[in-house]
Amino acid sequence: MSAPSLGERLRPHAAKIVASIVLASGFLWVLRRGGFPVIPSGQILARIPPWGWAVAIVYQAASIHFRTYRWIYLLRPIRRDLDPLRVYGIGLVGFTAVVFAPLRLGELARPSLLAQDGEVTFTQAMGTVGAERVLDGLFVTVLLFLALSTSTPLSPLPDHLGDLPLPVAAVPTAAYGALLLFSGAFAAMGVFFFARDWARRAVHGVVGKVSLRLAEFLSDKVERLADGLQFFRSREASLPFLRDTAIYWAVQVLGAWLAMRSVGLSADPGQTMVVAGVTGIGSLIPAGPGFFGAYQLAAYAGLAMFFPVESVQSGGAAWVFVTYSTNLAMNALQLPVGYWMMRRGARACGSQS
After folding, report:
1. Which of 45, 175, 219, 332 matches a 20 to 30 Å C-alpha distance to 321?
2. What pTM was computed for the model?
């Protein structure tokens, strides 16, 4: 039996799509009420020099490459002879879906597309995607913790974000909470991967006292994620994946720092890491198409830790717009490229069979 098509998998989520549009509208209202422009004025946009746009485009392109290619290393322990060109193309198409589909429903795209030829099952591919997300979250929250420990924020931190009654002081607390969340998720994955039978009995012994159905649900979900950790058994797969992940985030921070400089924000590397980390965590939250609202609100909250509100609403608005718009544009442009690679890789595999 062939794997369900992407459309068949998305059809039951119609209510979520509507909810995401409502959520995006809510974010728009919040941003406007807080005095943070989604599209800055022409005067603010004029502060972005051509080299600032060029930096944003280059670092977005480099980030896309390392983020996409590293998926191959997660899949190799499952199926070593997968065609890299096809997997890379599926990755490009899939990440476009992640960006533009609401509530991160696009995470289903890569597993669905990869499972079409039967070489890897949907569950196996979904396990690698889930593991990738947990590892990404753990990596960025650890870096964020280190950056928060070494950077110097405003003192005292503002008790509101622009005109919004949201305390900026809550940002570090949220960051530490995210670190605990991803650390716990990674630990649970590790236990299920290396001691699956014991872990399942433990979950049933604890959660099963409340609900056997919930215990079975949690066990199945964590086991699926744990399957994506098979690459840890192979240094040939784990070391390149961790290397590309480190490069990916280094490119993100360096590009963000240069883009800040281009609009007159004199952030140091530690401060930039905090802003990039907070923005990254905000983008992991299920939101509307294009991460709209969640990206902007997280970015403004990170900037408000180090710059007065006037700078955030001017230079900060220019930085948020240039990074967000180039991210959307690059993810849209990668779709036809990924589709071409995916189809060419599929033809090459067919001709060899």
Report:
1. 175
2. 0.87
